[in-house]
Write a structure and sequence with these properties.
By secondary structure, this protein is of the alpha+beta class. The protein contains four helices and five strands. The protein has a five-stranded antiparallel beta sheet with strand order 2-3-1-4-5, with helices on one face. α3 crosses α4 (about 90-110). The chain starts with 6 loop residues before the first helix and ends in a 29-residue tail after the last strand.
Length: about 160
């Protein structure tokens, strides 16, 4: 009969291929949608670019290594994107989440926008999905579809 081992002893005896370098909390963490920007929706008419930039800088943590850029999409939406840097995507997402709540409080209390939330911006600069929405549904736009009309002869189509 083999001696009983505790968990630590069993892991120590296990070959390297069987043990994982990921610890238990990381394994249990359920991955949700990723975010890489913040979007302000229904921005008040007359809001100036400098005013939005000032609020963004004011709400960002002073110890943050990430610089944020403000980009307008049309007249009523503003994107806050991280400037290119050496942070990893999870770090960028964490920094954005830490900035979002004070930013949301400031913007909505001053009636600058109706909604402020996290979003994902794809490589083409378009918002793919926003916080609180499901993943984007692909909708074929301008796809030619053939319609078959049952007719007795081809001349009937012309009339």
């Amino acid at each position: 009969m083999a001696p009983k081992l505790n968990l630590a002893q069993a892991q120590a005896k296990a070959p390297a291929s069987e043990t994982s370098s990921v610890n238990l909390p990381e394994q249990l963490h359920k991955r949700s949608q990723a975010f890489n920007a913040i979007v302000f929706e229904n921005v008040r008419i007359g809001t100036m670019h400098k005013e939005v930039e000032r609020i963004v800088v004011q709400c960002q943590e002073p110890v943050s290594d990430m610089r944020l850029e403000v980009k307008w999409i049309g007249d009523e939406e503003v994107l806050v994107l991280p400037a290119p840097n050496s942070l990893l995507p999870p770090q960028v997402e964490n920094e954005l989440k830490n900035t979002l709540y004070p930013l949301r409080r400031e913007l909505i209390s001053k009636s600058i926008c109706d909604r402020c939330r996290l979003c994902w911006v794809n490589q083409h600069g378009m918002v793919a999905y926003k916080e609180g929405e499901g993943k984007t549904k692909w909708v074929p736009s301008m796809v030619a579809q053939q319609t078959v009309v049952p007719v007795a002869n081809s001349f009937a189509v012309l009339s």
